[in-house]
Design goal:
single chain; 322 residues; alpha+beta; 4-stranded antiparallel beta sheet; 8 strands; globular
């Protein structure tokens, strides 16, 4: 019994260390950054705003979001993002341009296979230990969501070539204003213990304006914020059923008055032929009458002409970021 109790306690402790965020996530401790391959609990295409991805949680290899070219937001590079990002991306680009901060894109959506190749490249360049905090293994990258973008300055060096890209005009503007358009910096400075990756001032993830405003106001990095509050957005509120519109009652057509039935024309009695066998009765001769005087013919009446009837009317890039 004692051994069973000890074993049960160990199992519960292990479960708490790797527990999935849920309704109780606001009080559960944020898991430590460690390497694993566990499917993210909020990994459906509809939960992209709060999907937690780090060195432990990942997406399936078959995850492919609905994509649209960033050219729809005014960028000339041939990258793609999730289609829901386009409106805010276009608005942010225009606002930055008005402030004198030109934005370019050096990476956006990456498939599972592209990320596998990207990570292998940085392992060769940086070594396994540095690559683990500078790039993400396949399935663990926010780029696979289609909502993460690596920004740059058009015509300039890659952002990771600067000592701190956030000190450039474009980088500083994004740091101060991106949240207004639904974008958050996934890996801020000096947060490695909670973000699990190194500082990347060029890497922003779109989560929508409401969540971005709440993250910005909280002062938390995206990963710990999502662990605490992601459950609030993981399941969209059900859409109420529309009230059925009653069908209009058709107006009955008026009943036409019955036409009067003409009276039947009486059929004249047939006059039979005279009886051939009977002789007509003899009538007395009439008395002679005086022949009237002949009068002039008033003129015969001409019969009317016959009236003639009328005629018939005739639907891969390489970058060193998670």
């Amino acid at each position: 019994m004692l051994l069973a109790a000890v074993f049960s306690a160990a199992v519960l402790a292990a479960g708490a260390a790797t527990s999935s965020p849920g309704a109780e996530a606001s009080t559960a401790p944020l898991p430590a950054c460690r390497t694993g391959d566990v499917l993210s609990p909020w990994r459906s295409l509809a939960q992209y705003r709060v999907t937690i991805l780090d060195r432990w949680y990942r997406l399936p290899s078959t995850y492919v979001p609905p994509l649209r070219s960033v050219s729809a937001a005014g960028f000339s590079s041939g990258y793609a993002v999730r289609r829901e990002v386009i409106t805010d991306l276009a608005a942010m680009r225009a606002a930055a341009a008005r402030a004198g901060a030109r934005l370019g894109i050096i990476s956006a959506y990456r498939s599972y296979l592209t990320q596998r190749w990207t990570y292998a490249k940085w392992v060769r360049v940086l070594g396994a230990s540095r690559a683990a905090i500078s790039s993400a293994r396949a399935g663990h990258s926010e780029h696979q969501l289609g909502t993460a973008i690596d920004f740059t300055i058009p015509g300039a060096s890659a952002p990771w070539g600067y000592s701190d890209w956030a000190r450039t005009r474009a980088g500083a503007w994004l740091k101060a204003n991106a949240w207004r358009y639904g974008f958050v910096m996934s890996y801020p400075a000096n947060r490695l213990s909670v973000t699990c990756y190194g500082y990347e001032p060029w890497h922003y993830r779109w989560v929508g304006r409401e969540i971005a405003a709440r993250m910005h106001g909280s002062g938390l990095a995206p990963r710990p914020w999502l662990w605490r509050h992601g459950a609030e957005y993981a399941w969209p509120a059900p859409t109420p059923a529309p009230t059925p519109i009653p069908e209009a009652t058709p107006t009955p057509a008026p009943t036409p008055e019955a036409a009067a039935t003409p009276e039947a024309t009486p059929t004249p009695e047939a006059v039979g032929p005279p009886d051939a066998t009977s002789s007509p009765a003899t009538s007395p001769d009439p008395e002679p009458t005086t022949t009237p005087a002949t009068t002039s013919d008033p003129g015969a009446t001409t019969p009317p002409e016959a009236t003639t009837a009328p005629d018939a009317t005739p639907a891969p890039d390489v970058t060193p970021t998670p």
